Recover the amino acids of this structure.
């Protein structure tokens, strides 16, 4: 089968298309004929801890959708022929293994391309907004880098939870493209200069929950923009800044909560723990059409390098999805 592998060097991430053996499903796994897989910017960031040590080749891709070809001996919830989506290592392949505990049935009406844009991104947003962020109806949600995959997903999930959403982006065109998704307050900036605008938009209240997809360069500004008992989630650092000052007086006086969102150190059981709640609480919004994944573009399997370059340049709005080759 064809499969993309990736290696991180000191200056870049390199892709290589290989012919590899088709894997076999373990007792609690699904073998999935992949139809589509989505790109995630963190996978291509030089120095990002997702890569492991420089110089190591590994299968590329982290989420996708397809059709079950075989189910492990201990799997009871899925069978060959089922349409599934989920997080899975090596998703940029014709076939990939998916843990059955993380697999989800694709809601009726969604294409494979749409389904591929859901698992990793929306589960991360669910973690930030619901599990840790405790976002409530009528609260203010601020999303830094709202045009990213996680940013757009957080906007969409925030709206169905009843929040009012502020989003930052350096591109007015990107902000305009997100208006149909319900963005309440667009702030066109890449700089740490938005706290006063957030306070003005919220009548001095501040943001109850902030999703920081950008990194350390705006961390202090986010602290200034938080409301009393506000929560600050850090999910990425595309700016490459991994250290930031913290205002302990504000943390103390405003009873703030600061937390991170990452699956890197979690066990398989920990990664899968939120899936049942996500299926029960979020997937019905996809089935009803209230949420549709915001897809920037769908590209053919052979165009992964071009898709990677678009993502690395920050030109995308939402998710870039890779369409797998047709079955021979």
């Amino acid at each position: 089968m064809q499969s993309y592998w990736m290696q991180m060097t000191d200056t870049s991430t390199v892709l290589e298309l290989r012919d590899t053996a088709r894997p076999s499903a373990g007792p609690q796994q699904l073998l999935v004929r992949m139809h589509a897989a989505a790109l995630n910017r963190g996978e291509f960031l030089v120095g990002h801890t997702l890569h492991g040590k420089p110089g190591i080749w590994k299968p590329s891709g982290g989420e996708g959708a397809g059709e079950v070809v075989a189910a492990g001996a201990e799997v009871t919830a899925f069978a060959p022929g089922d349409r599934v989506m989920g997080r899975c290592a090596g998703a940029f392949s014709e076939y990939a293994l998916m843990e059955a505990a993380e697999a989800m049935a694709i809601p009726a009406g969604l294409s494979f391309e749409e389904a591929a844009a859901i698992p990793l991104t929306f589960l991360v947003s669910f973690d930030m907004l619901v599990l840790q962020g405790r976002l409530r109806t009528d609260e203010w949600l601020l999303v830094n880098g709202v045009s990213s995959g996680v940013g757009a997903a957080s906007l969409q999930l925030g709206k169905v939870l009843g929040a009012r959403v502020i989003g930052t982006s350096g591109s007015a065109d990107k902000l305009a493209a997100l208006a149909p998704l319900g963005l309440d307050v667009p702030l066109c900036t890449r700089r740490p200069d938005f706290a006063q605008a957030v306070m003005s938009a919220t009548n001095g209240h501040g943001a109850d929950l902030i999703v920081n997809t950008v990194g350390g360069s705006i961390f202090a500004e986010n602290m200034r923009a938080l409301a009393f008992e506000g929560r600050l989630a850090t999910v990425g650092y595309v700016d490459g800044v991994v250290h930031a000052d913290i205002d302990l007086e504000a943390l103390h006086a405003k009873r703030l909560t600061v937390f991170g969102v990452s699956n890197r150190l979690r066990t398989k059981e920990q990664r899968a723990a939120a899936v049942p709640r996500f299926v029960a609480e979020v997937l019905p919004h996809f089935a009803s059409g209230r949420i549709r994944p915001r897809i920037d573009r769908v590209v053919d399997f052979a165009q992964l390098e071009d898709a990677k370059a678009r993502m690395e340049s920050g030109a995308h709005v939402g998710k870039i999805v890779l369409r797998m080759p047709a079955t021979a």
Notes: Residues 119-132 form the longest helix (14 residues).
